[in-house]
Amino acid sequence: MPRPTDDVQAFEAHATDADLDDLRARLAAARLPEAETVHRAAPGPRRWEQGVPLADLADVVNYWRTGYDWRSFEKRLNQIGQFRTTIDDLGIHFLHRRSARRCHTSDLDARLAGQHR
C-alpha cells in the first residue's frame, strides 16, 4: 500500500511567455519526416498503418504553433483545482474536483484500492 502523505500543495499551471515563444520557435523549426509511401490513404484505421499521416502531423504542428490558445487552457485547467504531493518518493500531480453526488468515491481512490487488494 502506498505510504500516505499529509503534504499536499495547491498547484497552478503557468507557462512563461519565454517558454511559449520557445515552443513556437521549436515547432516552426521542426523537421517533419518524409510522407508515408501510401499517399492520402482513405479515412479509417488503415490510414495509420505506416504511422501518423504526414498531413495530419503537419496540421497539428501548425495548430500548436499558430492557433492553440495556451492561456485559455491554462485558465480552465487552473479553475479545476490542481495539487502536488509525493507518494513513495514519486512526485504526483493531480486534479481534484468534488463530485456533485454525495456518496461518490473518487476514481483515484477506487483505482488505488483495486491495485492493492
From TrEMBL:
<feature type="domain" description="Epoxide hydrolase N-terminal">
    <location>
        <begin position="9"/>
        <end position="101"/>
    </location>
</feature>
<comment type="similarity">
    <text>Belongs to the peptidase S33 family.</text>
</comment>
<keyword id="KW-0378">Hydrolase</keyword>
<protein>
    <recommendedName>
        <fullName>Epoxide hydrolase N-terminal domain-containing protein</fullName>
    </recommendedName>
</protein>
<dbReference type="InterPro" id="IPR029058">
    <property type="entry name" value="AB_hydrolase_fold"/>
</dbReference>
<dbReference type="Pfam" id="PF06441">
    <property type="entry name" value="EHN"/>
</dbReference>
<keyword id="KW-0058">Aromatic hydrocarbons catabolism</keyword>
<dbReference type="InterPro" id="IPR010497">
    <property type="entry name" value="Epoxide_hydro_N"/>
</dbReference>
